[in-house]
Predict the 3D structure of the following.
Amino acid sequence: MKGEIMAKAIMIQGTMSNAGKSFLAAGLCRILKQDGYRVAPFKSQNMALNSFITEDGLEMGRAQVMQAEAAGIRPDVCMNPILLKPTTDVGSQVIVNGKPLSNMPAVKYFQFKKELIPVIREAYAKLDREYDIIVIEGAGSPAEINLKSVDIVNMGIAKMMRAPVLLVGDIDRGGVFAQLYGTVMLLEEEERALVKGLIINKFRGDKRILDPGPAMIEELTGVTVVGVVPYCNVDIEDEDSLSERLEKTSVTAFADIAVIRLPRISNFTDLNALEATQGVSVRYVRKAEELGNPDLIIIPGTKSTIGDLKWLRQNGLEAAIQKRAAAGTLIFGICGGYQMLGETVEDPEGAEGGGNIRGMGLLPVRTVFAQEKLRTRVHGRILPVSGCYAKLAGTEIFGYEIHMGSSMPVSKAEEGTPLLEAARMGEEAIRKDGCVKENVCGCYIHGIFDSDEMRTVLRNLLYERKGMKGPEGSVLSYADYKEIQYDALADILRANLDMKQIYEILKKGVD
């Protein structure tokens, strides 16, 4: 394989999940782009409920989408050829090259995944032909000795692609030197030789208090510490439900948006643009007593509409939301959240285990699941609607749909009002989507709040409902906001990583 790999590669692995691999990979992508290289991210296998639909209608993990943005390139499913979307505690939907393959229990997938190695090689080879440098991200820890025999995401990939490894430890969780030393020592000799640098991440305080730790860990492992990265407040997308943003519970701005933190929440990145909006506070709610009296309640997407609807019902949040809806609070459902707001959710083909369940009864729609997943990008506008959401009429929206069911009026007598009209990718026909009834609405469009116009109008609507005038002017472009964040991340990493050493590691590769 060594002679076939043309692009330079470097791999970021971690001592554990959430050590900062995605964050550092994005920062390196931005630095390399700034330095004039054509760079692309790569993660052979991603497990996450945050996904994205490419311009080709293919599904991939959002972490690699974020890294592609940092690299200044369009997302391509080759950057994440295998995506696992957990459906239960012991199983996932397996998505290969952007298309669903099947739902598999963990044991079955463990036995099957070696068959995916040709898929991984082919995806990497495509990037290899098009880019100067590939920044590879691992998953979890390479020292998970129970998984090493069939590893297709950590050292298995480093060996396959002949990629030098930077190993990242999370000092914020404590025991960072034990993390780094233990991980290196649990590697096989051949694997250990691939580790060319250590990074201490999420450090708070004066770096001098770490002394003589870095020198000692270098002596113990024989690997150079190439940087100590401070705990950063840079706002870039998070990969999964370990995200710290989901811990936000306080109101910090005039307009209070409460997001229901569902157990199987998916695509919570839909809310990132709102979090970046001046004058708006986004907080996450898990209990009825936390709901309070927000200006807007958002029920986000979920990988298990039926299971999470039962959870809402059992813990009292459903009743609390219905009470707020009756009092006039604005309610907005996205995808699975939209489905929950209807009269019924029906699963005749067993997409979520089968059966029917009563919905929250706030919108006159019924949802019927199917086995086939819809994956498409969309672009359209909010329709003229009356009542609480009238100010949104004509607002441009864009985003994407990922769902395995459709929602329709309960009856002709209760059709409700469609929320928007949009064209799906590759179709000329304009379709109506979603439903609005008084102060409650919902639709299937992920990323609907990424529209700068949508966020401006929505923010001003929330202010007007409280008798106030919204902040002057439009919101900062979300695309511009993200560019600022990627550049800030690159600046922090340049100041705290030995980039000269990292370039040397890239140049030498592995023996």
User: Anything to note?
Assistant: Confidence is low (pLDDT under 50) at residues 1-5. The longest helix spans residues 478-496. The first strand starts at residue 8 and ends at 14.
